Amino acid sequence: MIKKHLLTCSVILVLALISKLNIYGTTITETVAKPAKLSHRTSKFIFIKSTTAAYNFADEALPVNDARVTKKLNKSLSQHSFKSVQSTLLHRKAEVLFPIIEPILKFYGIPDDFKYIPLVESGLKSGTSSKGASGLWQFMAGTARTYGLKVGHGVDERQNVRKSTIAACKYIKELYAEFNSWTLAAAAYNNGSIKMERAINKQNEDNYFRMSLNRETGSYIYKLIAMKAIIEQPKKFGYKDYIVIPPTTQLLAFN
User: Fold this and answer.
1) CA dist., res. 237 & res. 233, Å (int)
2) 172, 185 in Cβ contact below 8 A?
3) Which residues form the signal peptide (predicted)?
4) Measured between alpha carbons, how far is residue 129 from residues 72, 134, 139 in Å?
5) N or C, fewer C-beta in 10 Å, the chain?
6) Which CATH entry fits the domain spanning 59-253: 1.10.530.10, 3.30.70.3450, 3.90.1150.10, 3.30.1300.10?
7) Neighbours of 180 (CB within 10 A)
């Protein structure tokens, strides 16, 4: 009788242990099956994705999944912030130049974002570069003559905002016809169409943001996007106060 009672207790004990093991096993399984919480790093990446997606050039968006693109964009935005530039000259230039440039771009069917090229090309400086490029659109003498500008014999129409903008529009339209992309057209404006075409063929890639280009051209579109950002949203990038040039001054500045 005692033996039977002990046997019964043993069976109950074993069943209890098995049941307990199953409970723990289920708990472990459930824990593993639960989706892991996003780490701080993952959350940061998602934030960068949405930030990158907010920027574009001529309505051609940047890839949102590319960490290299994000890094280059953030670097350019930082370089063009008031903290780095410490000047409102770019905004004052824009206030003077854009009323002249914008209608010409529109007339030739060029996206409005190309108005930022003169700010990137000439920046805070003026005059002729060490390579011989001159004017707001930084034309070389030969290219300027090709697109109808007079250069030489005491005349340099590269310095004339209206005439040089018309010449730039003609050139940009040709570049777009060749590359079928405003982004590539802008990059070719900086690097030349022959070098750009060579790079596209060599890399078998026609997305500017995924191409490997020289340092200047590789950062060129990012500079244009950053310039667009600080001009359109000055306070976001630290430009809290800047002088507004009266319209009369604007008309006299670049005749």
Assistant:
1) 7
2) yes
3) none
4) 25, 6, 10
5) N
6) 1.10.530.10
7) 9
